[in-house]
Amino acid sequence: MEETRAVIPMRPLTFGELLDAAVSLLRAQAPLLLGAAFVLALAEQVALGPLRDWAHMSPPLYWLDSDHIGQSWLVFCFGMALEAAILALLGGFTGAAAGPGLLGQAVPRKTLLRQVGRRTLPLLVIALVAAALSFVTALVLMLPWPFVYGLLGLASPALMIDRVGPFRAVGRSFKLAGRGLRGVFIRVGAYLSWAAIRLALGLGAAALLEIWLGRQTTLHTIALILAWAIVDTVAYATLACIDAVLYLEVRMRVEGLDVAIGRLRRLDRPVDLASSVILGAAVR
Question: C-alpha angle 64/70/72, rounded to 5°?
Fold first, then answer.
């Protein structure tokens, strides 16, 4: 496999370095990651459209309607579940790209797509688990949601990088992200930061569309759906890259992944991140 410059440093990272590495990973595979994120984000907006109408949630913010609080809260929670599923699915793409990104290996996009395709079924299982847990925890006034969201985020990268089953990947995610809760805090912090960015960009785009196209027109509705989908595309792709980089970084910090890779390279042996030499007893 062709060697290139690693986009993920092989050492424990600070929060800023982790974000930089995530952006580098996104830039390295931008067409694939942004394309997949756009398809999923657009599907999300289309799926939520009729439900928002049913719950009387008005654009552009689609916030809770005080006269239909029960219906709008259910739709809000369903939206949180969709986001969790989307990030889990995108985590398959970013997880497939992160391993070669750490080792400095150039991988064609078709190869990454084949890797994700071979793991589609277990990836869907993780997405369903993430969606179900996010929906249930969001229903309870969002109180347990930050912990569950933070603990679940490393499952898809674990599935792709370690090549384990979906339930073992979920267990790996809970174990590694829960170690000192550092992974939880980083993932929740990244989500909240991007939530603010999405809100600013989405409302700004909505204001411009209202000036250009007016309100209550079919063209305005379609343009608003596309605007939110584009904003979410960048956010989802970036958050999924953060998950993949965070998974590798936590493994370096907790399991000595960088030390194991360095030892193999000194012995001039091939490096497989899913091999028993690298994983050791971590997944047993």
Answer: 35
Q: What is the pLDDT of residues 113-164, one digit of tens each?
A: 999 999 999 999 999 999 999 999 999 989 999 999 999 999 999 999 999 9
Closest alpha carbon to 50 in 24, 25, 79, 21: 79
> What 3-state class would DSSP assign to 105?
strand
| CB-based contact 65:54 (threshold 8 Å) | no
Gap between the Cα atoms of 172 and 219, Å rounded: 46
State the Cα–Cα distance between residues 71 and 76, nearest whole angstrom.
9
- The letter for the amino acid at 80 is M
Six-digit token pair at 126?
């993780």
The first and second tokens of residue 205, run together, are: 């785009």
Distance CA 183, CA 185 (A): 6
Tens digit of each residue's pLDDT (9 = 90 or more) over 191-220? 999 999 999 999 999 999 988 888 778 898
CA distances to 19, 54, 63, 159, 282 from 162, in Å: 22, 43, 40, 6, 10
> What length is written for the chain?
284
Euclidean distance between CA atoms 252 and 262, whole angstroms: 11
Omega within 30 of 0 (cis) for the link into 60: yes
